[in-house]
Amino acid sequence: MENGHSRKQGRKLNKKVKKAQHIVEKQTGITCTNNVTKNLVICNCGLVNGLSEDIIYHHFSAYGPLEKIIMITGESCAFVSFKTADTAELAYRNINGKLNLAQDDKPLLLSFVDRLPENSNCTNDLPSGLTVIDNFVTEEEEELLLSLVCFDEQENSSTLKHRQVVHYGYEFRYDNNNVDKDKPLLHGIPKECNFLWDRLQKLGYTDNFRPDQLTVNKYQPGQGIPPHIDTHSAFDDPILSLSLSSSIVMEFRHENGSHVPIFLKQRSLLIMSDESRYNWTHGITPRKTDIVSLESGLKVVQRCTRVSFTFRKLLKGECQCRFTKKCDTYLKNCADELVNHSASQLEKIHVHEIYENIADHFSDTRHKPWPNVVDFINSFDVGSVLMDAGCGNGKYLNCHKNVFKVGFDSSASLINLCQEKGLNVITCNCLYIPFRDESVDGVISIAVIHHLANSERRLRAIRELVRVSRINGNILIYVWAKDQCKDQQKSSYLKQDRRNRKKDDLPQEDKIQNVTVKESNITLPIHINRTQFQHQDVLVPWKLKDSNIDDKSKSEKLFLRFYHVFDEGELEDLCKKLDNIEIVKTYYDQGNWCILLKKLKS
């Protein structure tokens, strides 16, 4: 009886593995085999499921030395290569169908493969313009440089969430990866660093390079820094980073999916120039160990306290680089060219007209008010007047019965739905609110301003919200965040990915990469729903089933809504342009940047 049960379980597992093998072959083109090889594929778990190199190494290396771990961006599979076929077979017997690491705590499904993916996103080729010089300084010079910095005593030091920092020359602002060029610090770069530039010039790497900004970071094991590109308009080319006290793996990523992990040894110098400086993000994953590929195979390296010296030279004038998609100078100039008429046309076609078409379906998906917004509404005294600027289907107009609430929206169809509920609403545009100055005690603007097509119009909308508020009135604004994964926590928007999105279900989104909006003479990328945003100005699909067609054969219409998703600190910087408000607080709430303002004067 027991053997019969085991055979049944074995057949069930084989059936699952065969199904998963077909998915792997479809995703990667790699054919699975029944023959024992030194290469294994994890068929049902990868980067999209939260699997990491660290986790794979921890469990698989217990059965023998590993040569490679290959993770593929956007796919639910991963590849592991052992030194020998025998150790791979041992891992297969002990892990396949037994180790619960896949999604929903299901077991990993393994298969042997004859070869590994050739065009993996992870490559050993350095990005163009990137140079690493090992042993750039001696041990004595390392001690000298470390002695220059005292993190606990210097005036220009600060403690960030992830590390301790000291600035020289100019303070580097992490909210926008920039500096205030009009506010130099009292202390410039220590003269003891001058030997570095002479050495670089003698080695032929730079021509008379003299930086004027230095940031010294102290990383404890387990700390890191998010992927970023240093702002183009802030600094010249190149940027240098000297690693002291410990080694580290720095991750370089390109928007095409390429991923290059670079092992920066202690006392090595990293030179980021040209494409590597302007077009690739770099960051350090927060963890206590790094997996490094050596001639002997993969090895785990324990991190120690690391101190990095990052040298930059302030840029005079505008950036002239050719990497326009990542260049803030170029994008700003393009945004300025998007004059109000063009922006208005873009909003008309890809915001206003679309909400008229999807109003009923949109309303059906918007029932539950967000708790932090409800708390804000409930904070008002009895008899207060509250405005909902962009009220949609009016879900917030039923909160706090003892406050008088009035709402407006640009969508007449949504306003009709609100009027059917007996709510106090009118149809108007957030850029021109038909209310007197200082006529309401408070305002909420939830998921509205991100539909405006340039920064001038977004600022005008905020100015209108402030105008209609009374002195000491409060304004709460929510906008969609570009970063939908904060502090390693996915937003509810991303968490719906596996439930609501199937690859075979999205032929239109897979085929359409971008759309030219003729009315505005611009091209905008189409965002793939339930995924991290790659661009700030995007068209977000809304699928609407045709109710006039029989259920079994319902077709879908695809509507593309315009969004400007906000970077961290962008909404705050926009509000700072107003001189009659106080920023009470800013926070991140489930994929949204939120700001609470208080009006101080007319």
TrEMBL record:
Record carries keyword Transferase: yes
UniProt GO cellular component terms: cytoplasm; nucleus
Needed cofactors: Fe(2+)
GO molecular function, a single term: metal ion binding
Enzyme class of the recorded protein, top EC level: transferase
A UniProt-annotated Pfam family: Methyltransf_11
Residue intervals of the Fe2OG dioxygenase domain: 210-315
GO biological process terms held by the UniProt record: tRNA methylation; tRNA wobble uridine modification
InterPro entries: AlkB-like, AlkB-like_sf, AlkB_tRNA_MeTrf/Diox, ALKBH8_RRM, Methyltransf_11, Nucleotide-bd_a/b_plait_sf, Oxoglu/Fe-dep_dioxygenase_dom, RBD_domain_sf
Location of this chain's protein in the cell: Cytoplasm; Nucleus
Its EC number(s): 2.1.1.229
Entry keyword set: Cytoplasm, Iron, Metal-binding, Methyltransferase, Multifunctional enzyme, Nucleus, RNA-binding, S-adenosyl-L-methionine, Transferase, Zinc
The reaction(s) this protein catalyses: 5-(carboxymethyl)uridine(34) in tRNA + S-adenosyl-L-methionine = 5-(2-methoxy-2-oxoethyl)uridine(34) in tRNA + S-adenosyl-L-homocysteine
Coiled-coil ranges per UniProt: none
Entry similarity comment: Belongs to the alkB family.
Cited PANTHER family: ALKYLATED DNA REPAIR PROTEIN ALKB HOMOLOG 8
Designated name of the protein: tRNA (carboxymethyluridine(34)-5-O)-methyltransferase
